[in-house]
Design goal:
This protein is of the alpha/beta class. It contains 24 helices and 9 strands. The chain starts with a helix and ends in a 19-residue tail after the last helix.
Amino acid sequence: MDPELIKDCVHCGFCLPTCPTYVLWGEEMDSPRGRIHLMGQHVAGTPLTSEMAGHFDACLGCMACVTACPSGVRYDRLIEETRAVVEREHDRTPEERAIRAMVFALFPYRRRLRMMRLPMALSRRLQPFLDRVNPSLGAMAELAPPPARPVRLPPLVRARRRRRARVGLLTGCVQGEFFPQVNAATARVLALEGCDVVIPQGQGCCGALSVHSGRPAEARRFARRTIAAFERAGVDAVVVNAAGCGSSMKEYADLLADDPAWRERAEAMRTLDLAEFLVELGPLAGRHPLPVSVAYHDACHLAHAQGVRSQPRALLGGIPELELREIAESAVCCGSAGTYNLFQPEPARELGDRKAERVLATGADLLVSANPGCTMQIAAAVRRAGKGEIRVAHTVEVLDASLRGLGPGTLGRAGRRARGNA
């Protein structure tokens, strides 16, 4: 925990109404200001207690407070450093250690995750039993989406029009295994907009889950592998379609700061969110009308961590006949937050239910999200509310449907079985 970063907080309280856990419980120690106070106590010599660790664990790391802070406090850096301290110094229960070991042995590894897709989807029927065994297991069963048809992407998808750029595509772990149709749509849209799309076969986890969970050494290993994979690809930029992954990759230089050679390589790798890249590139392909109403959900690591808010709305707003509807309390986290909904299932469900209520209040035909965790979290909350399956799509799937002249019926759950290769 950096004492100088802690001193930047003037305890003004602007962060309080933006913090999801403070909104839920109204407890000072469950606000950014309160947690920074606890960090200061620990730096001053107070041992890390179980109660202190509990307040740090309860933080979603959504970064809404970073957006709201008038003093520029780097709470993002502080909470990542603090989580690493908690993992080193806090003695978790055997049950907690077992659940965390299982999550980090599974989710960052695509082959392992692939083998678990069907069992996880089928386990939804066993959710009440799993909830009694361990709430984290119950949450995992509840969140699992229906199995998606695998999509095989080639190493190179060539531009369909005049080539304007050569980009790399991060396929991701959860995105690649649970939502492969998003990667296929991403490759198609980029090709239609004049990009050669390189998909390195050796890429693995970007390290986002690890860095957000106090496992920096593991995150650095993943980061180095990712950098090396895209260096070999020889691309102008790396395009990312998952908010949490993009946020972490943009901070590789900080993660690798103690290794000058790797820091330099990280700084040389230009990483952009897909919507950010497409707006910067400018439209080339024609948009067909798509008569559908869309509620756009701001993923925290896109809106707060990366500052990407207007670009997805610009892409959606550029589609003829599409109606964009805003969600109330759009800046408040849905409760997914990487692994948060697995490790802190109760507050995650409270936040998910709150978000689902506001999504449903829009009356939109389709929920659009740019992060797989958010998609699973909100869909699960809608099911809990007894509203059945909500139609959910990624921003790029909506754009893909417009570019290819497909109807709105191809979007969401109904369209997932129909999508093929890029």
